[in-house]
């Protein structure tokens, strides 16, 4: 399936050459750049749901590639950037239900594929949105989420303990300029 119409507006990148200290692949989700409401209002919700499944498959491909390269890897790390996240564009009831559906799909069809979800640049209301989504998750998955506000020093320190700066894109306080 061709996802060209979604790639630009709903950036999810498998950072193929980037790994955590534990050699886990990294999936970058630029959530704050997404216009969920527009996709819902223009009748593209079902296609977006399929695209999110495709994105999950990207994370799985990163794991399989690492295994093929001889690494003992079974999980992926997800970095999510909420910079630009707005209540109207991202937190409308249908938008939140779309994100809940994505999480439930990951838990049901891709159990234990996530090592950790690190959310950075969350606005103050973003914690409430994430907590709403977390309420639908299993306790095991719920405990994998670490959320940070715009205090870059705090989340950079946290990321530094998990991912070398030369393995992280600039967006996440790293030095890497290409995938």
For the CA atoms, what is the radius of gyration? 15 Å
CATH architecture: 3-Layer(aba) Sandwich
CATH class assignment: Alpha Beta
Tell me the fraction of residues in β-strands, as a range.
15-25%
Give the N-to-C terminal Cα separation.
23 Å
Helix content: 40-55%
Mean pLDDT: 86
InterPro entries: CRAL-TRIO_dom, CRAL-TRIO_dom_sf, SEC14/CRAL-TRIO_domain
Pfam family, one: CRAL_TRIO
GO cellular component, one term: cytoplasm
Protein name: SEC14-like protein 4
Overview features:
CRAL-TRIO_dom, five-stranded mixed β-sheet, SEC14-like protein 4, alpha/beta, 179 residues, CRAL-TRIO_dom_sf, single chain, globular, SEC14/CRAL-TRIO_domain, Phosphatidylinositol Transfer Protein Sec14p
What is this structure, in a nutshell?
The chain is α/β, with parallel strands linked by helices and 179 residues long. 43% of the residues lie in helices and 16% in strands. Strand 1 and strand 2 form a beta hairpin.
Structural overview:
This protein has one domain: 3-Layer(aba) Sandwich (Phosphatidylinositol Transfer Protein Sec14p). It has 179 residues and is of the alpha/beta class. Strands 1-2-3-4-5 form a five-stranded mixed beta sheet, with helices on both faces. 43% of the residues lie in helices and 16% in strands. The two termini are 23 Å apart. It is built from eight helices and five strands. A hairpin with a 5-residue loop joins β1 (12-19) and β2. The mean pLDDT is 86.
């Amino acid at each position: 399936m061709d996802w060209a119409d979604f790639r630009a507006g709903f950036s999810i990148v498998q950072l193929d050459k980037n790994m955590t200290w534990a050699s886990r692949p990294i999936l970058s989700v630029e959530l704050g750049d997404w216009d969920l409401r527009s996709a819902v209002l223009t009748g593209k919700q079902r296609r977006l749901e399929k695209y999110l499944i495709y994105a999950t498959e990207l994370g799985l491909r990163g794991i399989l590639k690492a295994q093929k390269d001889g690494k003992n890897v079974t999980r992926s790390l997800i970095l999510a950037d909420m910079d630009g996240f707005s209540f109207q564009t991202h937190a409308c009831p249908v938008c939140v239900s779309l994100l809940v559906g994505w999480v439930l799909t990951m838990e049901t069809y891709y159990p234990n594929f996530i090592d950790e979800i690190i959310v950075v640049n969350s606005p103050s209301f973003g914690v409430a949105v994430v907590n709403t989504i977390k309420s639908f998750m299993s306790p095991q998955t719920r405990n994998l989420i670490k959320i940070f506000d715009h205090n870059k020093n705090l989340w950079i320190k946290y990321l530094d303990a998990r991912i070398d700066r030369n393995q992280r894109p600039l967006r996440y306080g790293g030095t890497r300029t290409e995938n």
